Each structure stands twice: as structure tokens, then as C-alpha cells.
Records
---
Amino acid sequence: METMTRPELFRLMFCCMSIPVLLTAQSTISPSDAKLRIIAIGAHPDDCDIKFAGTAAKFAKAGHLVKFLSVTNGDAGHQTQRGVELAQRRRAETQESARRLGIAEYEVLNNHDGMLTPSLEVREQIIRAIRQWKADFVIAPRTNDYHPDHRYTGVLVQDAAYMVVVPNVVPGVPALRRNPVFMYYEDNFQEPTPFRPDVAVSLDDVWDLKISALDAQVSQMYEWLPWVDGRLADVPTDPAARRQWLSKTRSRPISPAVRAALEKRYGADAAQIQHAEAFKLCEYGRRPDGEELDRFFPR
Ligand SMILES: [Zn+2]
């Protein structure tokens, strides 16, 4: 589907599908009214942790329901292990990460790592997952990532963004009556457009928790990713030392755009913030204004 403006989308819905107007009504959800239901979607069983663990922990602490979904089982992400053995190990790591973060659920779909394509079959898996979670928010990668699995996860979620409200698509799972808000994780890719945050969250008070979640991803943080980077020999063996090493190597400078987004929310305190996660609104799905986003997202 080509990009549509909201009036075009309304026209399509009225002329083709006879869906009641309440589907796209601009009503708001107040975090104090109800528990928000958030689903973060990543290609691999550590992607949501890397991009969203801090904000997820804050949402969870505030009583909201967060689910992480990995679209592949991660069975290619290691230098010596592979296949079912690796997939099982990584699944166990996701469950430990979820436990440490206090999120409601971490699901891993059984698609092969490194072989993801934006197929109808996987699109339907994603539609099903978003509907079953009754998501208010869906968070996913942008579609200009270096890794094809990340890129196609972005495409698959975009492809699901409208279909989650269409009852005749995946009829076995009731369609959502209200389109979720779709957002993107922060990335550093500059083409075709640099990431422009719509909301940023300080992680300074949950940074140790985020590192604790990543620390549960032993096969990735201490084995595969350092091996890919040619620095496996730098990883300390002592558990406390390697957690410190992880915190140091996972720290990133905050970009000027994200710093500006932090200033909007935190005022003068933003200058002191050392760790943050940031998110951009997708043009599909429901689009809350800046004030509503500020109210939804934890501080
Ligand atoms: Zn990944």
C-alpha cells in the first residue's frame, strides 16, 4: 500500500470496507485510566533488549504490560553453535532477560535467523501477535537497517500496521477495533533520512537494569557480538567485571537530536542525562500528538 494521508485512509475505509468511524477516532488513552499494552518487535532474540529494555522496564514498573517478540529464533547468531541447540539456548536467555526486566512476556517465533523474508506467512504471524496482545503500542525497527532480518522485520510490521484492523485478513484472530500507535526504535542510519525522535526517555535510573537484561544474553553479549567485532579476547571472564565491561561498551553518546528531545521532556536536567532511548512515530497507525506521547511514555 502506498503511503496515505489520513483523509485518504478514511476514504478507503468508508468506500471499500464499511468500517465504522470509531476505528480511527482520535480518542486518547490515559495511562492512569488503563494499563497500556505494548509489544516491541525485533528480528532476533536480543534486539528488543538492545533497543527498548530501559523504557520497557520503566513501563513495566508503572504497571503497564510489555511483550517482546523476536521474529526469528536466532539460530544463526553464533560462531560455534547453531541450529536447534542455539535456538534453545537463546530462547532461555530471552526468558531470563524478561524476568530481570519484569516484563510480561518474551515470545520467540520459530523462523530461521538470517533467512527472514517479508512473506505473507510471517506477516500473518505478526498480525496475529499484535492482535492477540491487543496492543496499544507497537515498536519496531525502521526499514533502512544494514541487516536484512532487521530491515524485513520493519517491513513486516509496516505491512501489518493497517491489516491488524481488517477482519477479513487472518480471520481466525479478532481484528483490533482501534489501530495501535506504531513507533520506531532509534538507529544511526542516515539514508534515506536520519532518525528524528518524537519522544526520548532517560535511562539513567534503569541503566543497571538494562545492562542486567543484556547480561542475560550471554551467547550474544559475551560471545557472538564480540567475536564479530574481533574483540572476543577483551571480554572479562569474571561475572562482575564482564557486566562492567558490558555497561562501558554499550554506552553510546547521545545524538544532538535525541538530546533536544530529552530537553523537551526534562528541561535543564536533560544536560546531565547519560543514557537514553528514543522513538519515532510511524506514519501508519494511530498518531498521537506530542503531548499525548509525553504523557504515555515513562520519564
Ligand atoms: Zn538483530
---
Amino acid sequence: MKTNLSLIRYALVALILILASCAIAVAQEAAKEAEHSLPAAPSGFDERFLDRSADPCVNFFQYACGNFSKFYPIPSDRSGFGTFTIVYERNEAVLHELLEKAAAGGATRSANQQKIGDYYSACMDTSAIEQDGLRPLQPDLDRIADLKDKSELTPLLAHFQLINVNAFLGMGEQQDFKDASKQIADVDQGGLGLPERDYYFRKGETDEKIRQEYVQHIVNTLKLIGEPETEARTDAQNIFQLETALAKVSMDVTSRRDPKNIYHLMPVSDLQKLTPSLDWSKILSDAQFPPITEINVVNPDFFKGLNTLLDKTDLNTIKAYLRWQLVASTDSIVLPKALDDEAFAFNKRTLSGQPDQQARWKRCAQATDTALGEALGQVYAEQEFPPSSKAATLQMVHDIESAMDQDLSSLDWMSAETKVRAQAKLRAVADKIGYPDHWRDYSKLMVARDDAFGNLHRAVIFESLREIAKIGKPVDRGEWGMTPPTVNAYYNPSMNDINFPAGILQPPFYSPKSTDAENYGHIGAIVGHELTHGFDDQGRLFDANGNLSNWWTPEDGKKFEEKAECTVKEYDKFVPVDDVHVNGKLTLGENTADNGGLRLAFIAFLADAKRKGIDLTQKQDGFTLIQQFFLGFGQNWCGETRPEQLRLQVQTDEHSPREFRVNGVVQNMREMGDAFGCKKGQPMMPDNVCRVW
Ligand SMILES: [Zn+2]
């Protein structure tokens, strides 16, 4: 089961991030600090991080963030460290306290505390995990060993879907792109062990080396589940060849950004024709899907190709591939140490350059959030997110929405006709702040204090069945795609909603101690970012109700594309590591959101100052308020990333590396150049400026 196919757009890489409210001071933070005795994150923009030897007109990122890593070098258990990591680590420590308390037990624990406490506790119990060894994997390894014929694959693949092993494919549910009121089933390409299809084909020494190390990683893993060296070596070669063939018929990440490319709703009988070697009605019913007649076949070419592959691949190779996929898809934290270490060595050290494994408590806190996010989130939100925070955040969001309304009215390139529809879409955006109104019910999920593997296994099936149960039912518009402690934010075009989990409402992004200028630059830019996603190259294809339907006049659509092309070319030129360029098309949506987001925050900031009669050219602590605004924005992205992680990010992630999230944006905003006295023609004030929104 893959996670649901939606076009959710995050503010950052899946892990880390931001947001919060604005100019209105909320005094919850001082209380929070006292309660936890955790180190306070810096508020507002931090002068310590400035590199005053750099020229802000030549490299604004360097000026705003050049000294950051002197204070926050990348620790050995991370692949990068930035402003977001500060917030993330603080949050991690809060979850740690909360989980330790819940794990301590006692009769007064609530039902949620029992579940999260016991889940965490079992995860921390390495001696029990070690003692269990491979025993928990054995039933599935036996099922693979017992396969006598390819026709017996069907029930096994269905079972694998329920336990999150996406061998060959991934099944799930999604909102229908063309009718957002419907939940439909979908089936997608799957079954690759490397991060993305191009990893199997890209030329060059580094990529060649990653492939060699990947094959060795498969060998090591197979040996650890009991295969003799020679057999493991042969199997690993065959598995790699099979995955390469799957990759050949898979769609790359950039093509997958276009919703038209990943939407092919068809009768199940047509899917049966694409892949006759599999019995689809049986897979669907074995995987406990409700009776359906239609399904979104995300990539039909893949399923045609899959059929050929299934026919020509021998059963032994398929069995080896299934063994490998089973182990590789299981979170190694519940497996014996040797397997866990092996997974770390390739997935983190090789691919991300992270030297050391993280402390176990950090990983178990994360695992508990993945399994029981809304149980953990409920306890977290009660403790960390008072109603005043929700109110303050909402105020900021409304402020930025007004700025967008104003921005839309003033656009000189868009016709009145399209403007009306854009404004209607803007007004229909649902603002979701902090945590869901209705919590997920985990009462039927059994969590045992002494069974880490079983807990994971049951939680994964529980979640798969929850997803599948949505098919054919009305859409729950109150549902969240992130857990409350998450330090991130997102926009979902099918829901037409922006979501800011409680976990991101923290200094330095938002602080009542900061100036308005700093808060608008920090958090305002993030709120603007999420809102702009509704109108980026992908979001603009969906209407106010979340349906894929063209509400643009042909001329306006063409003008949008021309403007977007300028952004594509601008970011294509950036080279973050070795000779690897940023992919302007892959990152177009995020770059559009970064650019639009800062402009919206700036408009809102000016409007707020006007209301309050504040002179923005006045200096405080050596900087005008306008300079503080831009420095606040720049410092959202302070930090460093290891070169391996940078490479991985550029090749798979829709977000540009941190340096370009700053310089790529401010060079399009004359107001920044003016504020710092830059001259036309300097790098941060180029002659050619891109602007969509
Ligand atoms: Zn984003």
C-alpha cells in the first residue's frame, strides 16, 4: 500500500518545517520554555548568523546565513542542519519527555498514553527485538518459499499491499482528480529499491558507485536473512536487473508532477487487459478493497510493461526479489541490529552522507508518530498548543489571504475573467490550523509493551485498512495529511486547503518577542508559500472545489506558462553540488510558491505597518524594518547540507536547495535590492526578473 496518491505540496522536504502567526503577540512561549527547561531557539532574525564580510547585493544567502554553521555545525547523526532543524530538535525533545512519561506506565494513563507509551517502550527494548531475531519475518518468508507457480503470486501481492511491501506495484486510494467529492481506488508503479527511477540509468562515476553499493547492500541483507554468499550474490544481480527493468517502464519524478500524466481512470476490466498475468479482481478483494468498477491506473504503460516482465522473469528471481522487498520495506528499527545497521549504512550513510546512526529514542519517537500520529498528536497538542496559538495563526493566515486578494486584483497580465475565478478559488481555501477537529480512533489497534515488530505490523495494516475503507465514501474534508507534532506545512489541491500543524508554531519562525518585520519575513513567507501552491503550475489546474478543470482563458493560461518558463530557466542555472544542476521543471511549483510567498508576506507586512502608522525605514538594532523583513526570510533557510544529501535532494525532491530558496527569490524582488542599496546589474538585482504572482 502506498500512501495515498495526492498532490500534497509541502513547504520543505518531508521531514522538517515551519510556520506560525504574526504580529499579534501570544504569550504562550515563555510558559513553554519554563515547563521544559529546553534551550530557547533564537527569536526573529539573529545577528550572530550574519556574514558581514559578504555583500548582500552579491550573495544575500551568504550575508544572512554565512555564520550560521559556526553556531550550528551539522552533527554526525544528521545529513544537514538548518533553521528548521533547530525547531525540529526542540520538538523531538518535547516528544521524548512526553513518551518517557507515557512509557513509565501507571494506572492514571489515558487510553492514548497507554498506546503511545507501550509502542515507544517496545521500540526501545532492543534486547527483546534481538531475542526475536528473524522469527517475526518468518511467516512471510515461508509464504514466499512456498510459491510453486507464478499464478500463486496474486494472494501474496495482495497481502504485501496491506503490510506496505510495494513489490512490483502500490495500491491505494485518492480523491478523484476530476471529482474531488469522490474517493477512488488507484494502482501505481512500485517496487524499486533506489530512491527514483533515474538512479538506475544516470551516467557518471558517482551514480555508478551508488548502484554498485546498492547491489552489495542487497547481498549483505540477503546474507543476514540466511542466504549463503554465492546464492546471495546471484540473487542480488538478478534482483537489480529486475528492478532496472521495472524502472525502465516507470515514470520519472518530473513527469509525475503533471496531474494529467498520473490520472487514467478506467474500468477494472481494462486494467486486467493491461496486465493479464495478474488476477486483478482477486488482488483487490484479497487486499480487502470494497467492490469497485473503476480504478485510477496511474501509469498504464508501467502495467503493460509489468506484464511482460512477470511473464519472462523466472520464479526463483521473483522469489528472491520478494524476499528482498519484504525486508527492505520493513522499518529496520524493529529488526535485529545487524539488519538495522545494514539498512542505515546504505540508506543514510551512502545516499545521504550521514556518518552516524541517530540515538534510538529519536527514532522510536519518530516511529511512534508514524504509527500513532493522532494519539501522540492529541497528547502533544493538549500540552503544547493553546487556543490562543490557533487564534494568532489564523489571524496571520487571513492577513496573507487578503494580501493575495490584493495581489490578484493588481496583476497586469491577467484578464478580469480569470481574476474573478482566481479570487473565488482563493476565498474557497480552507484554513486548517494546529490539529484536526476530530481525532482518529485507535481503540481497535492492539499495542503490546513487549512486541515491537507486532506493533508495527498491526499499525501498518490498521492504516492500510483505514485508507481502503474511504473508497466509495464521502470525502472527509476535516482529515489531515500530517500529524500535529510535524514541523512542516502543506497545501492539498484536491481539498483546496492549507494545513499548519501545531509542531511548526515555534520560534524563530514565529515569536511574540519578534518584531512584526521578523515575523512576516519568517512565518508570513511560509503562509504565503502554502497559499501560492494553490496557484502554481500544478495547483492552478485545479478549481475552487478541488477538481481538475481549466478555469483559465486560453490567453491567460499561455501568459502563465511563459512566466513560469522564466522561473524554470532561472533555477536550471543553479549548481548546488559538483556538476549537478537544479531541475527547474521539477522544482517549478516550489519555486513559484517561494517567490509568491515572499511577495504576499511583503504586501501583508506593508499593509500592517500602514494600519499601525509605522515608518518602515526607521532603524532598530542597526537595520531598517524592511531590511529585517528580508533578513528574517533569508534566515528561514540558514544551514548546511552534506553533499550526498544535496545530490539526493536535487535528484528527487521538488524543493530547491536552501541557498537558492533565498537567492533565487530575492533576486526577483527589487524591493530587497532597494532596501540594501543594491545597484541594477548586481547579482541580486539582475536585469532579467521573473515574476508569476
Ligand atoms: Zn511547498
